UniProtKB/TrEMBL annotation:
Residues 6-253 form the ABC transporter domain. Keywords: ATP-binding, Nucleotide-binding, Transport. This is Branched-chain amino acid transport system ATP-binding protein/branched-chain amino acid transport system permease protein. The lineage of its organism: Bacteria, Pseudomonadati, Pseudomonadota, Alphaproteobacteria, Rhodobacterales. The keyword Transmembrane helix does not apply. Pfam families: ABC_tran, BCA_ABC_TP_C. The keyword ATP-binding applies. One of its GO terms (cellular component) is plasma membrane. It comes from Oceanicella actignis.
Length: 255
């Protein structure tokens, strides 16, 4: 088996006396779509925010492509290859869709963002590469028809796909998708499933946190189940579907 691109070892996070994550360990391998599920309050959002650097870990290690990142700020984790989406859209409504995606690519720049301003109209090779990547993402996410539309004027479903495009603009090794199907109807969830598989096939590992069990069971190669901040099961979708502890804690409740 190939080395994991993301490895979580004994991760814990406490808020005062409340243990939101308890000694959590799992791996995300290249070409994985790993699902993270659990009842409300199980620690899913805290896990994502701790992996991304919003919260500082109380204990444990987060290893991204061989580098320990648990003490790094959020922007450095993004630069090293760990991107994420959010449950609610974080967009500039006056930007066009194309401009918003391009903004997500700024972390990949090696030259100063203002360098192109002083190039007297000449686009650098880096500018050209960013522009080409934005065009690829418009096609991948199905957003080309609204590329010149202000982000505040597109549908909520298109805003969800736009957040994914922004995360991918940073050229991550792993992308964390936080409730990407929230508010989507059936045909939009189907398109989301196609997009997530395409992301995986492009070489980007995916960690998806989601309540919609149909989507999780359909697209994930493996699933980690949390309850009260601790991992209670891990395995292939069929194993998780038939795990008694999972049924008792979550799937039975959902049924």
């Amino acid at each position: 088996m190939t080395a994991p691109v993301l490895e979580v070892k004994g991760l814990s996070k406490s808020f005062g006396g409340v243990k939101a994550i308890r000694d959590l360990s799992f791996q995300v391998h290249p070409h994985d779509i790993l699902g993270l599920i659990g009842p409300n309050g199980s620690g899913k959002s805290t896990t994502v925010n701790t992996l991304a650097g919003v919260h500082a870990a109380s204990a444990g290690e987060i290893v991204l492509d061989g580098a320990h990142v648990q003490t790094l700020p959020e922007y450095e984790r993004v630069a090293l290859g760990l991107a994420r989406t959010f449950q609610t859209a974080r967009l500039f409504p006056e930007f066009t869709v194309r401009e918003q995606i391009a903004l997500g690519a700024q972390v990949t720049r090696r030259s100063h963002p203002l360098s192109s301003v002083f190039a007297f109209g000449r686009r650098s090779a880096e500018d050209e590469a960013v522009a080409a990547h934005v065009e690829e993402l418009l096609d991948m996410t199905g957003l080309r028809p609204v590329a010149e539309t202000k982000t505040g004027a597109i549908s909520s479903a298109q805003q969800r796909f736009l957040m994914i495009a922004m995360a991918l603009a940073a050229r991550p090794k792993v992308v964390l998708l936080d409730e990407p199907a929230a508010g989507l109807v059936a045909h939009e969830r189907k398109e989301l499933g196609r997009l997530i598989r395409e992301i995986r096939d492009s070489g980007v590992a995916v960690l998806v946190i989601e309540h919609h069990m149909g989507l999780i069971m359909e697209i994930c190669t493996r699933i980690v189940v949390l309850n009260f901040g601790a991992k209670i099961a891990e395995g292939a979708p069929e194993e998780i579907r038939n795990d008694k502890a999972v049924i008792d804690a979550y799937l039975g409740e959902a049924a």
